[in-house]
Each structure stands twice: as C-alpha cells, then as structure tokens.
Write a structure and sequence with these properties.
The chain contains 9 helices and 7 strands; from the N terminus they run E-E-H-E-E-E-E-E-H-H-H-H-H-H-H-H. By secondary structure, the protein is an alpha+beta fold. The chain has a 5-stranded mixed β-sheet. It has a two-stranded antiparallel sheet with strand order 6-7.
C-alpha cells in the first residue's frame, strides 16, 4: 500500500521572491524524487518548473539538490531519504531560470575556456583511433564518462568563490585531451591551466568526486593535470 511523502520545493520566478512550497504526494517503495515532482506538476501545480529527459539515469538533466546533496532526481528514491520532509532545490552556482531550472550556459562557457573540443593534429588520419588496449586509452578512460550534469560544479566551493575557476568538469575534460596524442590544442590549453585561477585554485576537498553520479574523480583528474604540468616544466613529458 502506498504511503505519502512531503516535499519542500524551492520556488522562484523573475517576478516573485524565492520561497519554499510544501506538497504532499503518494509514495510507493520505488517512487523517485522525479516521480513525485511529475505528480505534483500534473496533479497539483502545473506552474512548477523542472528539467528532465531520459528518466533512467543517463542524461543528467534532472540534477538538483535533494536534502542538501546533489543527486539525480530520477535515481533517488524517496524511501532512501529517510523520514521527514524532503527538501528539493536547484543546483548551486548556476543562474536561475525558474524554480528548479538553472541556466547551463556557464557550464558550457567553462568547457570552452579550457578548449574542451579536440583539435586534430595537422595531417592526422581522418579516423585516427586510440586503441582500447593501449596505456593511453586506459589513462583516458578513468575520466571519459562525464555526462555534463553539472553536479560537480554545484558541489564545488571554489566555483562559488571564484567565477574564473574553470571547475571540476572542465578540468576533468582537459585531462582527457592532454592525454590524447591526437589533440593539437595543448599550447592554448596549457596557458590557461597554468593561470592562477585554474589548477592552483583547487583546494582538493573532493566534493566533486563525492557527488559524481558516474563514479568519476574530477579531484584526481586535477591532481593528474598538476603532475603533468610539473613534468613538462622539467622536460619530462610532451
């Protein structure tokens, strides 16, 4: 038999001050936070705004802060959150658009800042591959599965303190390209990485690693980038 749960949801529009609105929903053992939000929107309050797409933990669109921690709404069961009201608010450190919906443009901008697109080497083969059996690929694989959900930026205290800091996701992506022999964009990227607001700004708290739903460790990627930078200073790496 279904029980019920109380959700305290952050509400905001450009025309109204921020507030918390409480809703009560039916909750079975497998009801997720996203299920509850959809139920509220369809049955109680059609003005509630939130973002989602796949509903199966693949796209990262439904990332939000639930009970003080960044989570996928579609993979977080209400039952797992324990007794008491469940608080739901948007990701931190992103501009708000409405209610639980944030503007992801700063996330994309940080990726551009670290030259996150692969720049093919001149004369490289059209379909140059990195063998799955190579040491290079094994190193890259440790950081390659980022889905761009933004949870790590929300959890990162340095992103909130210094808007010039590229953030965990962008630096994690930078590592994959720095390790990729096909990339010719290293010079521009390295000048940015060695700037005082990039690699040097991470304090290594590991909040990003703790909340990553893909099990990646952006904190470790940043440490690896620092190590590469030191090796290059002494001419020990390309």
């Amino acid at each position: 038999m279904a029980s019920s749960a109380s959700l305290r949801v952050f509400r905001w529009t450009p025309d109204e001050p921020a507030r918390v609105q409480e809703y009560r929903v039916a909750a079975a053992a497998d009801t997720t936070v996203l299920d509850a939000l959809v139920d509220i929107q369809r049955g109680q309050d059609p003005t509630l705004a939130f973002r989602y797409a796949c509903r199966v933990g693949m796209c990262g669109s439904c990332a939000m802060v639930v009970n003080g921690r960044e989570r996928w709404a579609c993979r977080t069961r209400l039952e797992s959150l324990g007794p008491g009201p469940v608080s739901v608010r948007p990701l931190y450190h992103f501009p708000l658009l409405r209610d639980l919906v944030v503007d992801m443009a700063p996330f994309a901008a940080k990726l551009r800042d670290v030259h996150a697109a692969l720049t093919p080497s001149e004369g490289a083969a059209t379909y140059a591959l990195v063998s799955s059996a190579s040491a290079e690929r094994r190193e890259i694989d440790l950081a390659i599965e980022c889905i761009g959900c933004g949870m790590c930026l929300s959890a990162c205290s340095m992103v909130g303190h210094n808007e010039r800091f590229p953030g965990p996701a962008a630096l994690n992506r930078a590592l994959t390209l720095e390790l990729d022999h096909r990339d010719a964009g290293r010079d521009e990227r390295r000048s940015m990485l060695l700037d005082g607001d990039a690699l040097a700004r991470c304090h290594g708290q590991g909040n990003c690693t703790e909340v990553c739903p893909m099990g990646l460790s952006p904190a470790d990627s940043i440490r690896r980038l620092r190590r590469l930078a030191v090796l290059r200073m002494f001419g020990l790496s390309r």
